[in-house]
Amino acid sequence: METNKYSSLQLAFIGDAHYNLVVKRDIIDKEVKVNDLQKLAAKYCSAKFQAKAAMFLIENNYYSQQELTIYKRARNQKSHAAPKNTDIVTYKTSTGFEAVWGYWFLTSNTQRIEEIWEVIKKLGE
User: Fold this and answer.
1) CA-atom Rg of the chain in angstroms
2) What is the third-level CATH fold of 3-124?
3) Per-domain residue ranges for the chain?
4) Which residues are CB-contacts of 101 (< 8 A; sequence separation ≥ 6)?
């Protein structure tokens, strides 16, 4: 799939949706009460956690040069809405993370998605 036709924020939009699905698919098998599933999902799907994951991936050289370019392009995109529950730096960092995830999804790179999810979910444990 040609991902260049999508803007950074479109990649982040689809990345956010798919990332949420991956998280929820993983935690559904955890032995927790149904009411606690949402809390667990919210922990991994928060801008704060995504920003932490993005910084971990960057600092440990998990991103390829192309993925880093996608991340930076999305992170530096002008935002038209101020985040309500987080600061702007965290919000922009998480947007970059979501854009890279969206890129992986749109290019059907499921192996990369699973590899990275296994790495970053340990950050939340």
Assistant:
1) 14
2) Ribonuclease iii, N-terminal Endonuclease Domain; Chain A (1.10.1520)
3) 3-124
4) 15, 16, 18, 19, 113, 116
DSSP labels for 52-106? HHHHHHHHTT-S-HHHHHHHHHHHTSPPSS--SSS-HHHHHHHHHHHHHHHHHHH
Known catalytic residue: 16? yes
Q: Residues 16, 26, 29, 36: which is the catalytic one?
A: 16
pLDDT in tens, 26-74: 988 877 788 888 888 999 999 999 999 999 999 999 999 999 999 999 9
* Token output for 82: 């101020």
Q: What is the pTM of this model?
A: 0.91
